[in-house]
Amino acid sequence: xxxxxxxxWHLGHTLHDLSRRAEHLAFFDWLxxxxxxxxxxxxxxxxxxxxxxxxxxxxxxxxxxxxxRARARLPKLDLVVIGxxxxxxxxxxxxxxVLRAHGVKVVGGLPRRSDGSLDADRLLCPLTDAAxxxxxxxxxxxxxxxxxxxxxxxxxxxxxxxxxxxLYAEAVAxxxxxxxxxxxxxxxxxxxxxxxxxxERSERKILGGNQHALPHDLFPESLSYVALxxxxxxxxxxxxxxxxxxxxxxxxxxxxxxxxQICIVDFEGEQLRxxxxxxxxxxxxxxxxxxxxxxPLDEVLPLLAALKAPASVPxxxxxxxxxxxxxxxxxxxxxxxxxxALEGKGVxxxxxxxxxxxxxxxxxxxxxxKALRDLNPEEVFRLRWAREHEGEPPQELLAAxxxxxxxxxxxxEAA
Length: 415
Prior knowledge:
This protein is α/β, with parallel strands linked by helices. It has helices spanning 21-37, 57-73, 89-93, 96-101, 120-123, 159-178, 297-305, 334-341, 363-366, 377-388, 395-414, and strands spanning 2-6, 14-15, 18-19, 42-46, 78-82, 104-107, 124-128, 134-140, 184-190, 225-229, 235-237, 239-244, 261-268, 271-279, 286-289, 295-296, 320-327, 348-356.
């Protein structure tokens, strides 16, 4: 049996108000081609299907269109989707009866019966091989919220962590009872594990906060493979068979260098036979100029002018650009200067990241020999200026500040 593991699609995502829809649609085209050419038996999507809990109608239509195309091209493909922390569990679960009738397994939120017990029938999903024989059992655990977890009053460690451990143990036990000899046991999850690398400006540590990172040993050795979502950087955790597939496109400029990929996992009976990854082609480039960090504006503008980006490229396929500038003081014409340098070029300016050449010190650090309460307003103003800018404040700015101080004093005297 062969499965493809992907996650963190974030449909509906925008980067500084620029739509990523064209990139997602290009990824879907590529993924459908690879599912077919690789003769995949199953596709696992490990959460964060959408970028927000209230995705646009367009993003939802793209998701269901993908599922319909996958079913039409690959009638025997098993599709399993779990909810992530960005998804609305109820929104994903609402069309589940219709999707189930078409062979798509969706678990948006943790399923429980009316008596509060875990609904293993909803949580577990069989996967079939090319011959139509059940080759694996998937434990499709969605993103877990604190309210989903069993109470563990006797827990020695963190109660939330121990609650997740107990829930997975219960789910694995149910799957062990259901699987026949020779069937692989596969777990899914959308969570944050200890010892992993987060993406700057992207993911956040989830469950109950930063202190609730989960240990990878909550996944027993009996599991043939663990398909995880949440982290956008592809990585293994603990052992080779516990994997984050990563996101299919870079979701921030900090993710430009990531090897965006899918995981291709082959099984022989219940044993993991081979695990390899395949890079996802990038349909739209994300650029940072200068690439090695902020530089003065007079060094940045020539780089922008030399940028080769044909204007004939359709807008939705043009590179997305972040310009990084280091300034000695505020520059009112900064955006106009950058836009002028980019005239006639086929790029989309997403962000101007400015860094000021000040000391970066707090006001207290900047005047260690004098208590802050002993500083007059102009001294505070000058120290605040020096924190971010080089040199002295411009005279016209100081004059305006002094006028404000005088007006404030006059108001106090009038009162």
